[in-house]
Design brief:
heterodimer, A: 116 residues, mainly beta, 7-stranded mixed sheet, 4-stranded antiparallel sheet, globular, B: 112 residues, 6-stranded mixed sheet
Chain lengths: 116, 112
């Protein structure tokens, strides 16, 4: 299995620009999570989906952030407009609910976002 | 709200020494607790998952224990090796949903 695939690995953009981060979960996984990691705040859950439906987006910091999952194999996290304080590593992770009692989270390698 | 704390933040040991990493959580109504490893510039890799009904899990040189009543989990790594150098994070999953609350991690350095 290829694991969770995220793109791009690095993104550098100017303040005010739109940023789109992409994620392909592991095939057969029905849960998908977006996390943000910073030195100050650690790992924070932004939003998660079950069967392509957003279940909890309470971690999305502002209306500038939006996430979609148009199908079981693809999700995007969009920031518009971006700000310097959005600089962080954004992780996508997936899990399989059928292994309910033993469902570790599988993480991608993350996208390092720098907003100047 | 679940608060997860990991102490110490960093640890340096000589090769061959056993490692003991601590994780504490405030809400004992957890579904499971997971330990992850993170290498620099990489994502998190799941090491062990302990269900709330279990007391411990073992995988090779790794052993994780769980004491819900005291809100603690401990990760033991036997006979540490330089390749064990990484940041180790614990995360508690709440009942009834899939949210994980992560600790800040313990960064381990194993000196050759």
């Amino acid at each position: 299995d290829a694991g969770v695939i995220q793109s791009p690995r690095h993104e550098v953009t100017e303040m005010g620009q739109e940023v789109t981060l992409r994620c392909k979960p592991i095939s057969g996984h029905d849960y998908l999570f977006w996390y943000r990691q910073t030195m100050m705040r650690g790992l924070e859950l932004l939003i998660y989906f079950n069967n392509n439906v957003p279940i909890d987006d309470s971690g999305m910091p502002e209306d500038r952030f939006s996430a979609k999952m148009p199908n079981a194999s693809f999700s995007t996290l969009k920031i518009q407009p971006s700000e310097p304080r959005d600089s962080a590593v954004y992780f996508c992770a997936s899990s399989q609910s059928r292994q309910l009692d033993n469902s570790p989270l599988h993480f991608g390698n993350g996208t390092r976002l720098t907003v100047t | 709200k679940q608060e997860v704390t990991q102490i110490p933040a960093a640890l340096s040991v000589p090769e061959g020494e056993n490692l003991v990493l601590n994780c504490s959580f405030t809400d004992s109504a957890i579904y499971n607790l997971q330990w992850f490893r993170q290498d620099p510039g990489k994502g998190l890799t799941s090491l062990l998952l302990i269900q709330s009904s279990q007391r411990e899990q073992t995988s090779g040189r790794l052993n994780a224990s769980l004491d819900k009543s005291s809100g603690r989990s401990t990760l033991y790594i036997a006979a540490s090796q330089p390749g064990d150098s990484a940041t180790y994070l614990c995360a508690a999953r709440r009942r009834n949903d899939y949210k994980l609350s992560f600790g800040a991690g313990t960064t381990v350095t194993v000196r050759a």
